[in-house]
Design goal:
The complex is a heterodimer of chains A (about 170) and B (about 525).
Chain A: H1 13-33, E1 48-50, H2 65-69, E2 75-80, E3 85-92, H3 101-105, E4 111-113, E5 128-129, H4 131-136, E6 148-149, E7 152-153
Antiparallel strand pairs in A: 1-4, 2-3, 3-5, 6-7
Chain B: H1 2-7, E1 14-16, E2 19-24, H2 29-38, E3 44-53, E4 56-65, E5 70-78, H3 94-105, H4 153-161, E6 164-168, E7 180-186, E8 189-196, H5 204-210, H6 213-221, H7 230-242, H8 249-277, H9 281-302, E9 311-312, E10 315-316, H10 324-345, H11 350-356, H12 363-368, H13 374-377, H14 385-388, H15 409-432, H16 448-451, E11 456-466, E12 471-480, E13 484-490, H17 492-504, H18 512-519, H19 523-527
Helix pairs in contact in B: 6-7, 8-9, 8-15, 8-18, 9-10, 10-15, 17-18
Classes of the chains: A alpha+beta (about 170), B alpha+beta (about 525).
Chain lengths: ~170, ~525
Amino acid sequence: VILNRKYYFYRNFLSSLLIVLKQFFSLFSNYITGNKDEVFHHSGKGPPLLTIHPDQTLVCTSCGHCQSICPTQCISLTTNEVKKAPTDFVIDMKDCLYCGLCEEVCPDKAIYMAYEVVPIVCGDYDWKWGIDKLAFREGLNRGKGIVLKDGQPQFQNWQSAGDPVQVKE
Amino acid sequence: MSKLLDFFEKRDIYEEGNRLYMSTSLLGLKDDIRILKDEFKFIFLSDIIGTEKSGQFEIIYHLTNLEFRKKFFLNLRISKTNTLPSLSMYWPLSVYHEMELWDMLGVNVEEGLKKRILNIPEFHGHPLSENFVAAGDPDESVFCDELPEIHQSVIDSERREGLEWSSHGPCSNNIKRPVQLQVKTDNDIVLDCRPKIGHVHRGVEKLASELDYFQFNIHADRINYQSCCTGSIVWCMTIEQLINMEISDRSKALRMVFLELGRIADHFTCLANICSKISYEEAYWENLKLRDEIQLLFNLYNGRENVSMPARIGGMSKQLPYGWSAQCMETIKNVKSKLFLMENELLRSRLWMDALQVCDITSTDAISSGVSGPVLRACGINFDLRKDMPYYFYEEVDFEIPLGVRGDVHDRYLVRFEEIKQSLNIVTQVMDNLPISKKEDQEYDPGFWFSLEEEAMDASVYCPVESSNGEFGFYLEAATNKRARRVKVRGPSFSHVFALKHIMYGSYLKELPLAMESLNIIPTEHDR
């Protein structure tokens, strides 16, 4: 279909005047009612977190699925084969794409993507997050960690894991 | 088309759907191309693909017939010492594809074309060839000691004659893309424009041959960051065609919905940028707000906006969340009412039309430079992969393709504006007739990929879709059923950048940023 022919001709004088008047009065009406158009929302997925049992041990059994699926290979995992638990779990946050494949692939629901906002700091910031930061950082239930109960992580809200971190300099 | 089959009867030509495959020799290449172009009207060069196979190079010329809706793949095998003849007498912009062949693969092209296009000029070696060894950190082994050679002898000689060459970008306030443009002007009228790309080259094609198909999904999505999800869906489509996998009707329909929503988001960004370039600030913010409303739907589905990645190999990442379809319908209603306002108040204004009726391109120039998508349709050429080579349920959906007349910025704006309306129609039609799924909790099985056994495979597949900017697809040659040997991205922006030469010819220098924004060039697509 060829586009409508009227688009290629100028508008006439009267209709232009009407539009200008309408715009002029909309300024007043916006001022009285207040501008309600603006929509603010932030992107949902934050950095990954590790869930814990009530006795403060990690749920992770170090099966290595997340390590093998990660698109940028930013997860490094060392295992203790006797206890079937990770001795060290490090994520290089400067490589992480926040894609969430590790969350989907995990059979034990041990890793989740958080919804908190984490400030990005330059300089001598430690990009490699160990277990202390992944499971017990400030944003997750005020440092107590997210407990896995009956196969469901106990988030405070249905959408947000933990409160947003206060940025301090 | 039966004529064509009769003509090449003795050669091993075979047909598969709307695609034709044939191989040729080095001596007969130019004759074959001439016959195909002049007699059988394969006038559109989509891409030139190069691979390396057992010590030989395999060059694939990918041609399109716009009238009969056919694609032609012409294979050519040459050894490493032979020179590849240039096709610049048939398609002037094919030289950039040939420069890329030398840059990335080391194919022995003609002497003047051995220039770096994606990598930096100091780089040693050809990254996609088989015996290339990456040197880790950039040190002496990668970079040579000498100072970089400046390829500006032509520019210098013309400067002495009195013509002005000026350089714009890559870090410019006007052109917000990492592209360097060298522009020849005479009293502010542009005579020539030479883009220099490669500033955000990330080696995506190399990465694709190292990762497996499941992992590359997010990287495929990041190639086109503006249209939210297109890359991921195309990648999954390609892999499913490769390993002959059937997906459910519901996930096909959902993918159509997300493709159209991504198209709308991309078009709104483009319209907003055009408005900002002629300082219509209010229209700029209105368009961005509408874009945000569309992106909220992606956020509610998957938690991400720009690089959403809703598709997985074998289906969609998850079921529609509760209340999503109601939110979708409400958004469509909002967007439609805003579009009605914009149509009444913005279009047909005198200032608006005078500012936008510049930078036109003729249809012959557009075809010879390989431009596709809304830019091609604005010249009046009816070619849309959704109608001509339909995938998923596009045959069963009612929609129309808008065509422009003159091919200037105003026409590109109108075509994009009309396409948004048509896409909204498609979304409502699909959401009304969404098939019911049989699996209750999840759309695909994540354990499937781990249980699949790796076995050797020798096949190639190319599966294009109509993205918001034009024909977008992955050419893939499989090594096994989990890993690829070579992946080539066909992004529309690669042709659009070099078509700037035709678009800018004869118009003022101040219109350069407007022309850039109306083409909607995405730097990660042409640099890869």
